[in-house]
Write a structure and sequence with these properties.
By secondary structure, the chain is α/β, with parallel strands linked by helices. It is about 40% helix and about 15% strand.
């Protein structure tokens, strides 16, 4: 148990520059405290002590602001940075070296619809090794986030995410590849210029609309030329021809 907790402290210190000592992590980090509570509650849940396990997890929630269901499966070196408002559902599976920031939800898609039919079913996401989920992101449903993937802050993910990509937006879309799986990206996104897929779509539509407007102006100019070519002669010439015709008849 102590070896396991020492490894968890090592993982947190490796990923948080604010951690100055092991004692600081052990005494002051809610993410570490949440792991301690879960390491007690999860074995009880597995052995069938469900109410007692839930009680311990609720004590952990009260103490840390992090709600981890005792049924969730969590790997090594799990780090919840800051942590307030994090929710991890019952059937969630988390791999090794996973980082979650505050406000993250690993939840179900529609937990209040046909609750009886959902009991005992896989309804929460699976996060493979080395995944980083940015603050406020919502990862929903029995989906899989591939190893090394990055979920940007405030993204909403409802479909599987391939390995080693960065996804952002609502709904989440792939915007870049992760160069190295071990690279650490705070809040799940690279700090350089990050293309927004919606902005790219809008810019493409603006370009198309500009081209269409230019073509319409060309067609209007051509139509005006045809109209001038087919227009009748001027009114004065028409009247003169009419008078001349009348004189000829007389």
């Amino acid at each position: 148990m102590f070896k396991y907790l020492n490894e968890e402290i090592d993982g947190m210190m490796a990923r948080d520059p604010a951690a100055r000592s092991r004692w600081e992590v052990a005494l002051c980090y809610p993410g570490f405290h949440a792991i301690v509570f879960h390491s007690i509650a999860h074995p009880l849940w597995v052995r069938g002590w469900r109410v007692f396990a839930r009680f311990i997890s609720q004590v952990g929630r009260f103490m840390t602001g992090i709600e981890i269901h005792p049924g969730a499966t969590i790997g090594r070196h799990f780090f919840v940075d800051h942590g307030m408002g994090v929710v991890v559902g019952e059937t969630a599976v988390i791999g090794n070296n996973v980082t979650l920031y505050h406000g993250v939800t690993l939840g179900g898609v529609s937990p209040s619809v046909d609750s009886d039919g959902q009991r005992g079913q896989k309804r929460h996401p699976t996060l493979d090794d080395n995944v980083i989920v940015g603050s406020g992101a919502q990862v929903l449903g029995p989906i899989t986030v591939g190893h090394g993937a990055r979920v940007g802050a405030n993204a909403v993910v409802t479909k599987d995410v391939p390995c080693c990509v960065t996804v952002v937006g609502i709904p989440a879309k792939i915007v870049s590849k992760v160069l190295t799986e071990e690279s650490f990206e705070p809040y799940g996104t690279p700090m350089g210029d990050l293309p927004d897929p919606m902005v790219q779509i809008v810019e493409g539509l603006k370009t198309q609309v500009g081209g269409l407007k230019a073509r319409i102006e060309e067609l209007e100019h051509e139509l005006a030329e045809y109209e001038r070519a087919l227009a009748p002669v001027s009114l004065g010439e028409t009247e003169a021809e009419t008078k001349g015709g009348a004189t000829a008849k007389n």
